[in-house]
Amino acid sequence: MNDLFRAFNISASGMYAQRVRMNVVASNLANYESYRANGEPFRKLEVVFQALEDPKNLSKGEVPVRVVEIRESNEPFKLVYDPTNPRANQEGYVQKPNVELVKEMADMITAVRSYEANLNAFSATREIAQRTLELWR
Amino acid sequence: MDIFGGIDKVLPHLNFVWKRHKVILSNIANADTPNYRAKDVVMEEESVGKLKITRERHINPKSGEGFRVVDVQRRLVGNDFNNVSLEEEMAKLTQNRVAYEAYMRMVRGSVDKLNNIIKEGRQ
Amino acid sequence: MEIRPINLTISPEREKAKAGSPGFLDELSKFIHWVNQEQQKAEAIKDAVMKGADIPLHQMVVEFEKAGIALNLLIQVRNKLVEAFQELNRMQV
Fold first, then answer.
1. How far apart are CA C17 and CA C2, in angstroms?
2. What is the mean pLDDT of chain B?
3. With the C-alpha atoms ordered A39, A44, A45, A50, is the resulting torsion angle positive or negative?
4. CB count, 10 Å around CB of C1?
5. What is the value of ipTM here, to two decimals?
6. pLDDT greater than 50 at residue A4
7. What is the rounded CA–CA span in Å between residue B30 and residue B35?
8. Looking at beta carbons, which residues of chain A come within 8 Å of C56?
9. For an interface test with A, which of C57, C59, C69 has the most A Cβ atoms less than 10 Å from its Cβ?
10. Could you give the number of structural domains in chain C?
11. Within-domain flag for A127
12. In whole angstroms, what is the distance from residue C62 CA to residue C58 CA?
């Protein structure tokens, strides 16, 4: 029955990965205007996914997904012209966190959709298992 | 004793559909994984002439099962080289489910028929 | 009128045919053997599954059903044999 459980695990790994992604987006949105104690803007977080694609898994057709890490983005900070802002530099620009609202919202929507797709797939696997066991009257 | 001929014929199809199901699960789980290529299961003879599947990874060349897992060549959807189309995978998921059910019912039919014949309708 | 004795010996052709063709008991024992094999296959799969082997659920279920059918067949054949035996017993010689 390990075979069946591994099938459930594939979808579960997908759901987990998307949940992590949702949390990260939520953090990024929450810190849209945040700064560190040293005055540095908040660096947005990114999730790194990895497909567990080794030959053994592939021959069985099972490729779960793994969250490798949550890391800070290396994208440059936003620069906004705002000379009146206490954080402004000499040219009058303020560094802002490298969080793009639109991109984060798009990510959130994709994450939710993928999560639901995985949940759907999980249900399908369960239905298959139930139908199979029905053969046993 | 060949009374199980009908059932044994369906078994390879069940194997195929189940493996395909797992591959579809994998595609859905990795819909957002960078560099992941969508996969599918093809029958061994079919995979030679199919237009869609041009680049194959010989993942298990001699599986002895009559089918194997291959990468699918498809239009790239995202710029992270991931080519999983969630809609297509969901559609395949449903199709596959139905196929599985159909094969299961064939087996069920054979089993019931055999039991009926053996018990001659009694008990 | 001459009374000729009835020739009860079996002709050579029939004798050969009888030796070559499988007898009823032969068939029966082959059949029981087969049922036993099906049972053993099911047991083997059950053991393998409990040890955590990689057998898909549908395969396990199908093998179990096959073993069950084989057993049913054996039971019914036995019933028929018992019936036949009882009927033979009832016959008045």
1. 33
2. 81
3. negative
4. 3
5. 0.90
6. yes
7. 10
8. 3-4
9. C57
10. 1
11. yes
12. 6
